[in-house]
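Hi C.,

You asked whether I'd gotten around to modeling the 343-residue construct. I have! Everything is below, sequence then structure, no commentary in between.
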Amino acid sequence: MVEDGAYQADPAEGSEFERRYTHGLVSVPGGESDDRQQGERGALKAETVSSVVTRRIAKREAETSNASESSRAASRGKRAANRTTKPAHKPSDLGRVSLVGAGPGHPDLLTKRAYDRLAAADVVLYDTLTTNAVLEDLPKGVEVVDVGKRPPNRTSQTEINALLCERSKQGEHVVRLKGGDPCLFGRGGEETEHLASEGIPFEVVPGVSSALAAPGISAIPLTHREHASSVTVITGHETPEKAESALDWDALARTVATGGTLVILMGVARLPENVDALVDHGVPPETPAATIQKATWHDEETVVASVGTIAKRNERAGIESPAVTIVGDVVSVREAVEPSLHR
């Protein structure tokens, strides 16, 4: 064991004189103690130290390089071994399908991967929630097909599934462009199941869901340490009175009443019934609520009210779909910060 500051000679570090001189082990005769001799001795010592340090660094670099090369060689060997154990893919003339989330509507909120997939697409099948602004940015030569589900030109899910398979089997790169995120009330799960059943390669490109984007754009935080610690997202298409409803309105009302945030998507038409159900199950009518119409679109609008008045306020404001309604105490944060909100 060598104590801190002690010197260990390395045979590779030069002559015995250099080692001893560098570490102060050689004495200089008294007659050479004038300024000139001291200067020369200092210069010699500096030069010797520099050469020793240089050799040490070169030695360490050589050792590190050898170790790194050995490590890289081992990694290459492992990768090669793995490749040989994987089954070979059979040649296929199938194209592929990308289920892409377009976000809330503004092209700036597309992810880079979404943008890349659109730029490389042969055909884009888009739905009604996609804005023209996103479509106008597509490269020339990309075929665009409207497969929206709104009347009068409603496209059934069966027809969409058939189109996805038909075009991809022709060897094309098909982008299924959906508003928000493909798998949040976007039927992305159903389409991936159908594609898998047909043996068609696909990927899912997540998008910024309107459940997150609309409140954020309007300065309504879905969670806040002083207001809410949970978020629940539901579809507003459900009829609360339906006996077979998949929504537990009693549980939803308890969530809001105890401080949680409720986000209702696609609920413009049935919002009066939805908020009535919340009140009937125990949500105080004065609970803050807000509806954001077409977040990030040119005709975006935000209406702030209470659970008891939001439906009528929306009607007076002419709110249309797509719109997101937020119920919960977090809505009250908007009033304090809205004056500083830059749009």
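If it helps when you're writing up: Residues 35-85 form the longest helix (51 residues).

Thanks,
B.
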